[in-house]
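During the reporting period the student researcher (J.K.) took over the structure-prediction task from the postdoctoral fellow and processed the backlog of single-chain submissions. One of the processed entries is reproduced below for the supervisory committee.
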Amino acid sequence: MKLLNFIDPQSGAVRPGVLTSVGVVDLVAAGCAQQTMEALIAQPDALPRAVEHALGDPALRARCVRDESALRLAPVLTNPGKIICVGLNYRRHAVESNLPIPTTPVLFSKFNNSLAAPDEAIPLPASAAQYDYEVELAVVIGRRARNVSVAQALAHVFGYCTANDLSARDLQMRTSQWLLGKTLDKFLPLGPHLVTADEVGDPQALSLKCWVNGELRQDSNTADMIFSVAEIVSYISQHFTLEPGDVICTGTPEGVILGMKDKIWLRAGDRVTVEVGGLGQLTNVMAGA
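J.K. obtained the following structure tokens:
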């Protein structure tokens, strides 16, 4: 199942929807009691019933099925409890960064102010100059996870989406703590779809690509991860509880500007597109602050 968030043109409110063969089912218009993506993730059994009800009633179907191309999308999650990121989690990215291969996951966080929608302009404030892109596989937790094993970990995943972990490298490297360079406003575009785990299959067999102004910059696969999705979920759960709706960004492969000999950082007007295989493309244009 593919889910998305869109902005209702009348109210301006964010609404969850399900992408079907006939269009996007507006779950609020369909009468679903869970009216946010986070609520749906916590009670996923409501989803199939709501879609079946909407498509089975011709009058209701006419009111609640929308054309995806006409929708203004929002981030697939707008209020996650936690946004956890993994640094240096691809072997070739660690090599291009001239850093040792980590022996345990390198964790940092972003905040909800960093969330951005597909096609949303990303402000590049004057407080930094070294702006970089990072295509990533984002994991969305579906079941509470505490002290879960690697073998059990994927059973706690609701689904996956495409993410761009935008970074201000000069701020990131200012101190040993990466937070400042990672959580600027709208520095985590997330979407366009949240794809349920049953449709994705093996998260360690997904392609990742990033284009800047049409030029392919990153072209890799999640098979190059140092720590698999299951290992990451298990590791985090040994230290603190993961709740439904929490987001984990699992790291970026090689090809970022930081690893290039001649570094031409992102600037206003640059168009960045990231894609994870089967999860959809996510495009944003960089803008002045």
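The committee noted the following: Residues 2-74 form one domain.
J.K. will present the remaining backlog at the next meeting.
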